[in-house]
Amino acid sequence: MQVINQQFIVERDDYANAGKVSSQVKQTLNQIGIPGELLRRVAVACYEAEINMIIHAWGGTIQCTLEDNGELTLTFKDPGPGIPNIDKALTPGWSTASEKARQLGFGAGMGLFNIKRVSDHFDIQTSPQGTTLTIGFLVTS
Amino acid sequence: MKCMKCLRACPTNAVFIQKDRVHINHSKCINCGKCLDACLNQGLQSKGSTLVDISNYDYTVCIVPSSMISDYKTHEQVEELFYAIKLLGFDEVIDISDIEGQVTKEAILLSDIERGKSLISSFCPVINKLIEVKFPMLLSSITAIDYPSEIAARQIRKRCSDKGKVGIFNCCECIAKLNLAKYPYGNHQFEVDHALAIVDIFPIIKANMGKGKLPVTLCKEGLQSCNPAMMMLAENHLVADGFDKVCNILEHAEFGLLNEFDLLTLFPCFNGCLGGNLLWGNSYLTKNNIHQLCKAKEKPISDLPFEEIYGESTIDNVNDMRSIQEKLVFFSKVNQQLEKLPGFDCGACGFASCRIMAEEIATGKKTLEDCRIHRNEVIQDESK
C-alpha cells in the first residue's frame, strides 16, 4: 500500500519557485517523523534534482511515493533536452549551466554527483527526448 | 472572546481552542511569544516571578542582561540602573556582558574547529526549540554552549556557597527566557531560581532611578552580541534576525546550501535581543544606546574554562519511541481522515489546520462530527 503518492509540476527557468517542491516533500516526510539524518539526505537530493530540472531541462514532473514497507522513491521526469555525456555530468565540478543560472548562484557542477552520493538507489535514463532520474531511499527507524 | 488571533499567529500550530479556552500544546510550543503579541484582549499573558520571592532567600543575586542595559545611553545611567535594581531588595546585582562576550567568541572558535558543518549558535531558546520542532535534521548542528544567564548563575552558586540559601533572579527581556527559567527544558539542572519580566519591574526601577550609583564596567563584545547588526562578522559567519528570515535560513541549511558558512547566529526577534517583547524601548533607539555605551571603559570578556560554559543538552531529547512502521500506519490513518475534512483550515473546530484535526480524529480524541463544515453538510443532506 502506498502511504504517499504526490505529483508536482516544475516549470522551466522558474527560479522564483525553485525549491518549493523540495520544501513540500520535506514537510510531508517531517510530518511522518522520519529520522533527521535520512530526512537531510532526501532534502539535499530532492533539491538538487529539482534545481537541475529548472536550469538544465525544460521543466518536468516530480513524483514522490512512499510504500508502507519504507521504500521512498523520487522520480524526476523531464521532456528534454537530455544529457549528452552522462559520465561527465556525474563528475564533480563539471557544469553546463547558463550564465543566468550561475549569476543566481546555481550551476556549481555538483548536482548529480551529490544526488548519487546521498541516495541509496540511483538510476538515470537519458535521451534527447527526455531524462528520467529515479532515486530511492530506505526509510528505517 | 473568539477572535482566534493566537491560533493564526502560532508558527508551529501549538495553540488550540477548546470550549472557549486557549490551550497550548507544550511539545510544539517554541515560546516565541507570537500568540501573546497577537492577543488584543490581554487574555493571554506570560507571568514572571514577583519580587515577593526575594524574602524566601538568605542571599539574593539579580542577573542583568545586556539588552536591559541598552535602554540607557550613558555609563552613569547604567550605574544608576544597577543601584535602582539593588534597591528592589537584592544583595548583589550582576552584569553578564563579559560572559555574553565569551560565549559569542567561543561559538566562533568552535565553528573554526568544525569547519563545513554550519554550526548554529545556541543562545536563543526559541531557535533551539524551533529546530527541534520544525527542523529536526539540524539538531546536531547546534553548538553545545549553555545560555549566558545559566553560566553566570552557576558561577554565582559556587562563589556564594557559604551565604546560606542563595536565590538567583534573572531579568528577562523576552518570553522565551522567562519560560526557560520557569519550565526548563532539556537542561534539567537549571540554576536560575526566578525569572523577572523586565516590563513588570520597570515602574519601580524608574522610581528608583537617580537615587545612587553602583560601579559597573561593561564588556563591549557582550553588549554587541545582543544585536545582529553589531556582531563582528567574518566572511564565513552568517547573522540573521526576524522569524521568517530565520526560518528561511534554516530551510536553506537543510538543503545543504549554506555549507560555505561555518557559523549561523540566528535571532527570531527583529534587532536580536534588543527586540525582546518584554523590553519597553524602541529597538532602534536602544541599538544606538549600545553604540554609545561601547565607548565607555571596558571590561574584558570572561575567561571561564570550557567545561563551565558547556551545556550538555540545551534541547529536549523527546524521543518518539514509535517504530517507522507505526509512524507510517498512523500517517496513513491521518491522511484518510484528512480526505474527509474540507481542507479550508478555517479553525472553527479550534485547531489551526485540518491536518491537526485529522490527527485528533485518528487518535480518537475527536470525531468527524466535531468539524462544523462536515456537520453542516450532514444536516443539509438529511433535510433533503
TrEMBL record, chain A:
Signal peptide: none annotated. It comes from the Bacteria. InterPro entries: HATPase_C_sf (IPR036890), HATPase_dom (IPR003594). Keywords: Kinase, Transferase. Residues 15-135 form the Histidine kinase/HSP90-like ATPase domain. One of its GO terms (molecular function) is kinase activity. This is Anti-sigma regulatory factor (Ser/Thr protein kinase).
UniProtKB/TrEMBL annotation, chain B:
SUPFAM superfamilies: 4Fe-4S ferredoxins (SSF54862), Fe-only hydrogenase (SSF53920). Signal peptide: none annotated. GO terms for molecular function: 4 iron, 4 sulfur cluster binding; metal ion binding. Residues 20-49 form the 4Fe-4S ferredoxin-type domain. Keywords: 4Fe-4S, Iron, Iron-sulfur, Metal-binding. Residues 326-384 form the 4Fe-4S domain. PANTHER family: ION-TRANSLOCATING OXIDOREDUCTASE COMPLEX SUBUNIT B (PTHR43560). This is 4Fe-4S dicluster domain-containing protein. The lineage of its organism: Bacteria, Bacillati, Bacillota, Erysipelotrichia, Erysipelotrichales.
